[in-house]
Amino acid sequence: MESKPSPSTLIDQLVVPGDVILDLSIMTSQTIKLGGGLRQDGDTISVMKAGTLRFTKPNKYWVESSNKRYIPNAGDNVLGVVVDTKPENFILDIKGPALAHLPVLSFEGGTRRNIPKFEVGTLLYVRVVSANTGMNPELSCMDANGKAGEYGILKEGYMFESSTGLARQLLSSPPHLVLEALGKKLSFEIAVGINGRFWVNASQSSTVILVGNAIQKSESLSMVQQKIYLDKLLKSIQ
Amino acid sequence: MVLKKTLQSICLLNVHPNTTTSIVIQVVNDDGALLPCAINAACAALVDAGIPLKHLAVAICCCMAESGHILLDPSKMEEQKVKAFIYLVFPNSIVSVLPQDVKEHGIITSVTHGAMAVDDYFSCLKLGRAAAAEMSDFLRNSIKLKAGNDLSRAG
């Protein structure tokens, strides 16, 4: 009876490219799932990107890192900007190495008769359906069940750029400190794409600017510094 | 050319086929050991950008002074006066769950200028490897500092 593999001793620690995290020769007939940032090098699993090694039971390993560039993965929700329209697809820029294709029929109730007309520069909230290396990623404006959900065009407001790490923090629960604090005093709408983009909309443009700048600034501040910054900011807008 | 080959050997280019990784290096100040400095800077930039790498490259410069002593990291003046100097690039020292292995003794690049005895070259190599281990730790700590800032605000 094979005993369960003990998780790597490097979990939740910083790893840099070259570090070896698992020795496969001592684990036989186990299935391990490797996420981003790891590769198999003969009989060992080694690290490709610097970041924190994460593990979830039963057998998933990945490296969590924050970069300015985004690598598309299936299942991600991203903000894309239309750069071109073709008869079969819209071409979107999702901040990855290749432009992504959004089929014209992948909208709820989409038929050849009611193809939406998006101009170049339109901002869309889309889901990445598939992202294989060497191919352009495929997108969709429907969720897995075929419903529109939150996907589609984002009108008005403004889009800001961030790193992928900040985007993940903004999407995590409990809500990010900045969003909670700003949400208590101001009312605004926000859409966060895991590709390092977020869109803010509010009734007044000054609110949009305030929220966008506050979020971008919070990335370089520690928790304590953020609290101080937000207190000062919210006092000054009264 | 040496710079390109060195960086090419540490990048994993087949993870993103059909793409170009473009590295721009701008010399702000040259006080000797320009090539090792450029390699260290490019490596740090690649790690920061999240480009997949096999391991990090740590570059140092060693020179043989007239007196027979070996100097590490010479300044521009020193570099011009010595009879020979070498640029060496090693892979970084890694943290591993395996008992320590062959990688410890790898070398990526060696560029020599001037003439020196074979024994001197080997002692430079030994010294250089020790220096590279120190620099490797420094690099790891710097990466930790930057990543640590991001982690401290995890939701």
TrEMBL record, chain A:
<keyword id="KW-0963">Cytoplasm</keyword>
<keyword id="KW-0694">RNA-binding</keyword>
<feature type="domain" description="Exosome complex exonuclease Rrp40 N-terminal">
    <location>
        <begin position="32"/>
        <end position="69"/>
    </location>
</feature>
<keyword id="KW-0539">Nucleus</keyword>
<dbReference type="GO" id="GO:0000177">
    <property type="term" value="C:cytoplasmic exosome (RNase complex)"/>
</dbReference>
<dbReference type="Pfam" id="PF18311">
    <property type="entry name" value="Rrp40_N"/>
</dbReference>
<feature type="domain" description="K Homology">
    <location>
        <begin position="157"/>
        <end position="204"/>
    </location>
</feature>
<keyword id="KW-0808">Transferase</keyword>
<protein>
    <recommendedName>
        <fullName>Ribosomal RNA-processing protein 40</fullName>
    </recommendedName>
</protein>
<keyword id="KW-0698">rRNA processing</keyword>
<dbReference type="GO" id="GO:0003723">
    <property type="term" value="F:RNA binding"/>
</dbReference>
<dbReference type="GO" id="GO:0005730">
    <property type="term" value="C:nucleolus"/>
</dbReference>
<dbReference type="InterPro" id="IPR041054">
    <property type="entry name" value="Rrp40_N_euk"/>
</dbReference>
<dbReference type="GO" id="GO:0071051">
    <property type="term" value="P:poly(A)-dependent snoRNA 3'-end processing"/>
</dbReference>
<dbReference type="GO" id="GO:0071038">
    <property type="term" value="P:TRAMP-dependent tRNA surveillance pathway"/>
</dbReference>
<dbReference type="Pfam" id="PF15985">
    <property type="entry name" value="KH_6"/>
</dbReference>
<dbReference type="InterPro" id="IPR036612">
    <property type="entry name" value="KH_dom_type_1_sf"/>
</dbReference>
<dbReference type="GO" id="GO:0000467">
    <property type="term" value="P:exonucleolytic trimming to generate mature 3'-end of 5.8S rRNA from tricistronic rRNA transcript (SSU-rRNA, 5.8S rRNA, LSU-rRNA)"/>
</dbReference>
<dbReference type="GO" id="GO:0000176">
    <property type="term" value="C:nuclear exosome (RNase complex)"/>
</dbReference>
<dbReference type="InterPro" id="IPR004088">
    <property type="entry name" value="KH_dom_type_1"/>
</dbReference>
<dbReference type="GO" id="GO:0071034">
    <property type="term" value="P:CUT catabolic process"/>
</dbReference>
<dbReference type="InterPro" id="IPR026699">
    <property type="entry name" value="Exosome_RNA_bind1/RRP40/RRP4"/>
</dbReference>
TrEMBL record, chain B:
<keyword id="KW-0698">rRNA processing</keyword>
<dbReference type="GO" id="GO:0034475">
    <property type="term" value="P:U4 snRNA 3'-end processing"/>
</dbReference>
<dbReference type="GO" id="GO:0071028">
    <property type="term" value="P:nuclear mRNA surveillance"/>
</dbReference>
<dbReference type="InterPro" id="IPR020568">
    <property type="entry name" value="Ribosomal_Su5_D2-typ_SF"/>
</dbReference>
<feature type="domain" description="Exoribonuclease phosphorolytic">
    <location>
        <begin position="2"/>
        <end position="52"/>
    </location>
</feature>
<dbReference type="GO" id="GO:0071051">
    <property type="term" value="P:poly(A)-dependent snoRNA 3'-end processing"/>
</dbReference>
<dbReference type="InterPro" id="IPR036345">
    <property type="entry name" value="ExoRNase_PH_dom2_sf"/>
</dbReference>
<dbReference type="GO" id="GO:0006364">
    <property type="term" value="P:rRNA processing"/>
</dbReference>
<keyword id="KW-0539">Nucleus</keyword>
<comment type="similarity">
    <text>Belongs to the RNase PH family.</text>
</comment>
<dbReference type="GO" id="GO:0000177">
    <property type="term" value="C:cytoplasmic exosome (RNase complex)"/>
</dbReference>
<dbReference type="GO" id="GO:0005840">
    <property type="term" value="C:ribosome"/>
</dbReference>
<dbReference type="GO" id="GO:0000176">
    <property type="term" value="C:nuclear exosome (RNase complex)"/>
</dbReference>
<dbReference type="InterPro" id="IPR050080">
    <property type="entry name" value="RNase_PH"/>
</dbReference>
<protein>
    <submittedName>
        <fullName>Ribosomal protein S5 domain 2-like superfamily protein</fullName>
    </submittedName>
</protein>
<keyword id="KW-0687">Ribonucleoprotein</keyword>
<keyword id="KW-0271">Exosome</keyword>
<dbReference type="Pfam" id="PF01138">
    <property type="entry name" value="RNase_PH"/>
</dbReference>
<dbReference type="GO" id="GO:0003723">
    <property type="term" value="F:RNA binding"/>
</dbReference>
<dbReference type="GO" id="GO:0016075">
    <property type="term" value="P:rRNA catabolic process"/>
</dbReference>
<dbReference type="InterPro" id="IPR027408">
    <property type="entry name" value="PNPase/RNase_PH_dom_sf"/>
</dbReference>
<keyword id="KW-0689">Ribosomal protein</keyword>
